[in-house]
Amino acid sequence: MSANLDLVRSIFEPWERGDFSSVAWAHPDHEYEIVGGPTPGKWRGLPAMGEAWATILSAWEDWRAIADAYEELDERRVLVFTHSTARGRTSGVAIPPAWTRGAVLFEISAGKVIRHVVYLDGRERALADAGRTHEA
Fold this sequence. Notes:
The protein has a six-stranded mixed beta sheet, covered by helices on one side. It is globular, with a radius of gyration of 14 Å. The chain is an alpha+beta fold. The two termini are 17 Å apart. A hairpin with a 2-residue loop joins strand 5 and strand 6. The mean pLDDT is 91. The protein contains three helices and six strands, in the order H-E-E-H-E-E-E-E-H.
């Protein structure tokens, strides 16, 4: 297993428990993007990423991002197929089914994530952005 794959697995360990507090894995000038969902957008830098993610998490309780499969695309990129679980903070309604099967694309340089893209609206866009046409 490569160092990049080890890094991404270590990121998902706390995410699967609903702990998104650590950013030790991210480069300070990290680029963060959300595709789909209620708050798509792009942010640069750790403070901006934290604010964006805090906004999303504020509407949900017990959000968990669970890795279904990891795939090293090349020496810099790792694609993770995911599923998420959460409940609305005030409504108690489960996360919309359209967001439950997604993906995260990580780009890594010198042992730090320099960019990651969260695909909340399905895996097809993640596959296309990764230059792939189907899941492994």
